[in-house]
Design a protein that fits this description.
alpha+beta, 122 residues
Length: 122
């Protein structure tokens, strides 16, 4: 995989469109992290979150979860939730698992005990 040079003003805020930190040039990674920290997690509070059937009930993402979980972010592009801290600090070359929070919860959460306030970074 080739490394990408960075324009800090043009970084993609939507987590579903972002380039993994590990794809940036090693000399740019800390600058990229600092810029994303300045931007903060992508939390589109006024988005019309789609309903989907889960079990026998229609469910959708609730923006109030942003208030309760400062690390949580949402991709309008992928209609999925993500963990901001994992994006910043998980090394995708060593932990290449799924990117979305939902995928992580479905696959791993039932198998391990995790702190309720921060489900995906362990």
């Amino acid at each position: 995989m080739s490394e990408i040079r960075v324009d800090l003003e043009a970084l993609e805020h939507d987590p579903g469109k972002r380039i993994p930190i590990s794809r940036y040039n090693v000399n740019d990674r800390d600058s990229v992290r600092r810029r994303y920290i300045e931007l903060g997690p992508c939390q589109p509070k006024n988005h019309d979150f789609k309903y989907r059937d889960i079990g026998d009930h229609p469910r959708r993402f609730c923006p109030v979860w942003f208030k309760e979980n400062k690390w949580l972010e949402y991709s309008v592009e992928k209609d999925a939730a993500f963990c901001f801290v994992c994006y910043l600090f998980m090394d995708r070359t060593k932990c290449p698992g799924g990117d979305t929070f939902v995928k992580w919860m479905e696959e791993l959460a039932p198998k391990i005990k995790i702190e309720k306030t921060h489900w995906c970074c362990h």
